[in-house]
Amino acid sequence: MNSTQGNVLVTDNSGHRNRDADLIARIAKLDEKALELLYQNFYTRLFRFISRIIRKEELIGEVINDVMYVVWEKAETYNQQCQPSTWIFGIAYNKARQSLRNAGYNDDESLNELDGDNLVFADNNCALNQLEMTNWLEPALDMLSPDQRAVIELTYFEGLHYSEIAILMDCPENTVKTRMHHARKKLALLLKDNE
């Protein structure tokens, strides 16, 4: 079901949410077929998300496998307080950061400014628009920190709210807003220079 709130198209993904929650429940009962289906459902999204954080193609597959192993091991701990995708992307975010740390990259940053607005692109389900935006932004996204790229990805491509991203990234919501503020500011400068 689609509805319009202001200028933002909101899509009801409860069917996907229920399907994914059912798969996780089956995984908790050691159903390997359910794990395979969940892997297929999330592979492309996880690949894109993880690649935006670590930027090392040779590690992406390994991180995805690590994520799915954690899903297999911890499926019984999923309590449905958040969307299945939020839970899985939280695991992916932590595994990607761990991969960066293991490679000797320190992605911590000290940020002070806060940004209170929550801009969301209108139709985040339109694959063509996402592809065009990705191709246009790709060089600029390379210049952002892993945390800033993660916030951009989760907001614009996955449609998560700042509060969900804060839970996923295990940080205050204001930190998410700050990362978004700095990412937007940096993207605006980089894209202006490329005009």
The CATH level-2 architecture is identified as Orthogonal Bundle
CATH level-4 homologous superfamily: RNA polymerase sigma factor, region 2, helix turn helix motif
Rg result: 17 Å
The total number of structural domains is 1
Principal-axis shape equals: globular
Output the strand order for the largest sheet.
Answer: 1-2
**How many strands?**
2
- Contiguous low-pLDDT stretches (5 residues minimum) are 1-13, 107-132
| Whole-number mean pLDDT | 76
Tell me the fraction of residues in β-strands, as a range: under 5%
Distance between the termini: 39 Å
CATH class: Mainly Alpha
Question: What kind of sheet is the major sheet?
Answer: 2 strands, antiparallel
Return the structural class: mainly alpha
CATH topology: Rna Polymerase Sigma Factor, Chain: A
Strand and helix order: EEHHHHHHHH
Indicate the percent of residues in helices. 55-70%
Number of helices: 8
